[in-house]
Amino acid sequence: MTTLAPSLTAADLGSVSAGSTSAVSPPARRPGRAGGDLAVYALLAVLLFGAWWFCRLELFKPGDDVGYWLGVTGGVMMLLLFLYPLRKHFRFTHRWGKVKWWFVGHMILGIGGPLLILVHSTFHLGSVNAAVALFSMLIVAGSGVAGRFLYLRIHRGLEGQRSNLQDLQRRAGLAESEIKSKFRFAPDVVERLLAFEANALSGDAGWGTTLRRVVVLPLQRRAIYQSCVLDINERLHAIALERSWGREQRVRRRRQATLLARNFLDGVVRVAQFSAYERLFALWHVLHVPFVYVLLLSAAFHVFAVHAY
Questions:
Q1: Rounded to the nearest 5°, which phi and psi values hold at 194?
Q2: What gap in Å lies between CA 167 and CA 161, rounded to an integer?
Q3: Where are the domains of the chain?
Q4: Which one is predicted more confidently, 228 or 82?
Q5: Suppose 281 and one of 120, 150, 275, 303 were both cysteines; which one would form an S-S bond, judging by CB atoms 3.0 to 4.6 Å apart?
Q6: Calpha distance 140→290 (Å, rounded)
Q7: pLDDT for position 164
Q8: What are the pLDDT digits (tens) for 263-308?
Q9: 10-28+173-274 is a CATH 1.10.10 domain
Q10: How would you class 68 by CB atoms within 10 Å of its CB: exposed for 0-12, middle for 13-18, buried for 19 or more?
């Protein structure tokens, strides 16, 4: 740790003053997005367990009236999923409401349709064609969940407006001069933050860099943040003793300084991961679309076989 300098200027103390939070804006992300993701995954788990439990009651079979109409309803919901890409890609549909609500409807249909078809099948495999249709549907639904995760990280929420790297950098406050000014009282913190930024934004465009930014970088960010907090606490404690700060003043300035560090680190991660999530989203499209076609063909053949035989 760097020892306390013999004297501290007014600018040093001003670095952690009440107005210091304006220079580094919060990272460009929706508040509580991680919590929202967990809520969605928890809901999916509950719905899946509920569907399995309902089928265990053996109230119907796939071939009777109840099972038949469950399958029809689920199939229709899966067909309605194609309204969302139509809304996005055809100009004459651009006035049909906000993309946000179409995406919400797309997600609801993408959850409800597969669940009803699973209930229709009573979680049992029938013919080979039915098994192919079922597994294709499960893969498409699962990839849809993964696609939602990636979509929200390269778009602004559900609005469908694509973020850009320059906008993310502006919102993150990634300016070396600002960081040096705000943390002039703690040079070790400046060194750690700028070193983390340089490391995070370095690397080629290969898959190794992509996976490092998605998997490893958040873990490194947590470790760097903890070390910065220790440095900030030590430096501000020394300054508080020299300047006779009260407890409330010391706590407030420590909170402001740690908030600056956290926002900067979160912004660096957000900017670094942007191109990585773009690449993963492009790969997701390549893998997702073929299974959609397999699902359509197998489902159509399954419906034909059910009614023909």
A1: -70, -35
A2: 12
A3: 10-28+173-274, 33-162
A4: 228
A5: 150
A6: 9
A7: 56
A8: 888 888 888 888 788 888 888 877 777 777 777 777 777 677 666 6
A9: no
A10: middle
Q: In 55-181, at which residue ranges do the beta strands (DSSP E only) sit?
A: none
- Asked if 50 contacts 118 with a C-beta cutoff of 8 angstroms, the reply is no
How many separate helices (H) and strands (E) can be counted in the chain? 12, 0
Structural tokens at position 7:
């004297």
Query: Any bridge partners for residue 291, and if so which?
Result: none
302 token code pair: 């399954």
Q: Which residues make Cβ contacts (< 8 Å) with residue 93, sequence separation at least 6? A: 86, 87
Tokens for 145, please give them.
Answer: 């969940």
**Which tokens sit at 178?**
């600002």
Output the pTM of the full model: 0.60
146: tokens are 């993964």
**79's tokens:** 């067909």
Tokens of 117: 């078809």
Q: How far apart are CA 153 and CA 148, in angstroms?
A: 9
DSSP state of 205: S
* Residue at 23: amino acid letter: A
